[in-house]
């Protein structure tokens, strides 16, 4: 049986009727039509689906959309403002932190959450903070360098 | 993959949750942090007819110090417990164990109590519960009962919970004075489940001998296990390097039939378990000595 839910994604209210088994990831992609959030493994291992739920990084493939009823979600589409890259996006670009780009939305959201909590992380803290995200292309060095390059700089 | 369909309930009180669970019997599953259950649903390894989601139940996310215990409610997230000042002051072993679980985004959702209810034999927190002699507070249609950790973990993903019952909270005894602790593991990658791991606590008396020793292993059997053979070697003795080496050897020898799989053979797990017990006991001793 479908249920009516309403949540806020990147500041925009989204309402829909969903089956309880629909994951938040599928809701974001199919109902909210925000396809920046990616699905790699659908069982919690790769981190590609990472979004912010009420300010905390979570795997959107492991939460049902009905559970997020009333919540505030932030996805990768919420990073850029007025057509300007967020400093993290700019840093990913400048540090070759992506190749195919499939993992990038997840890495950006994990990095964003990390810097919210700890604005000036050490390299070890960056590696630990991003340990739940898998990248098959870059070898991670560029990603760590990108986060490091913005660490300590204010919002 | 996508999960099979299920009926979804989001009660707001524990009584309501218990009533729903009782009504649906073994067709229903509790949903807490979802970090173990939802992967199983997505992979269709579990197909419950109904999910009873605890996340809207209020007043279950507590972590508090109470009568010499640290008490953790069913909805306290691992990340919150990891950062709790009460946990850091009274039972730091819990926070150290949580840091070995997955990754920040997993710990933001996953609950301490859910990890205990799930009872993966390679999980850290069930081994900590067994080592410390934690108590599980279970609520069901017939009221509340308290189960000792050692009785609670039955076998692989199986605990002493009947259909209709919820694990309401876990009570971990606080660390006694002059006690050191350690949790160490070997995993294939940072954040993965352990191939094998060891938990130890060691209490020193005025003469510097071990008045209490606890050793538990995870990843080496179908449930977390205390290792009395290793504890005996040290109890009442000065925990010098030779004694600790003998305790580690006793732990290795006591492991009858550790699992063998693509990640590690039984012989490797047995060897690593011995090494880890030695490491954990040395670290626990250092911490006990430093605590004055
Ligand atoms: C990438 C990744 C890595 C991980 N690594 C580790 C690791 O290294 N070590 C580790 O220990 N865990 C690990 N986990 C699993 C851990 O994160 C889970 O949080 C934990 O095992 C289950 O807690 P949960 O709150 O998420 O429970 P859920 O997934 O919601 O539930 C798990 C099971 O317990 C039952 N249950 C939950 N709460 C209750 C309750 N209060 N009463 C009765 N039954 C209940 C459910 O019905 C279900 O059967 C990992 C998970 C992921 C996705
Ligand atoms: S798609 Fe969610 S963690 Fe891989
Ligand atoms: S850039 Fe291709 S997976 Fe990371």
From TrEMBL, chain A:
**Organism whose genome encodes this protein:** Sphaerobacter thermophilus (strain ATCC 49802 / DSM 20745 / KCCM 41009 / NCIMB 13125 / S 6022)
Q: What is this protein called?
A: (2Fe-2S)-binding domain protein
Classification via InterPro entries? 2Fe-2S-bd (IPR002888), 2Fe-2S-bd_dom_sf (IPR036884), 2Fe-2S_ferredoxin-like_sf (IPR036010), 2Fe-2S_ferredoxin-type (IPR001041), 2Fe2S_fd_BS (IPR006058), Beta-grasp_dom_sf (IPR012675), Diverse_Oxidoreductases (IPR051452)
Q: Organism's domain of life? A: Bacteria
What PROSITE patterns does the entry give? Answer: 2FE2S_FER_1, 2FE2S_FER_2
Q: Which UniProt keywords apply?
A: 2Fe-2S, Iron, Iron-sulfur, Metal-binding, Oxidoreductase
Residue span(s) of domain 2Fe-2S ferredoxin-type: 3-79
Q: Name one Pfam family in it.
A: Fer2_2
**Under the GO molecular function aspect, what terms does this record hold?**
2 iron, 2 sulfur cluster binding; metal ion binding; oxidoreductase activity
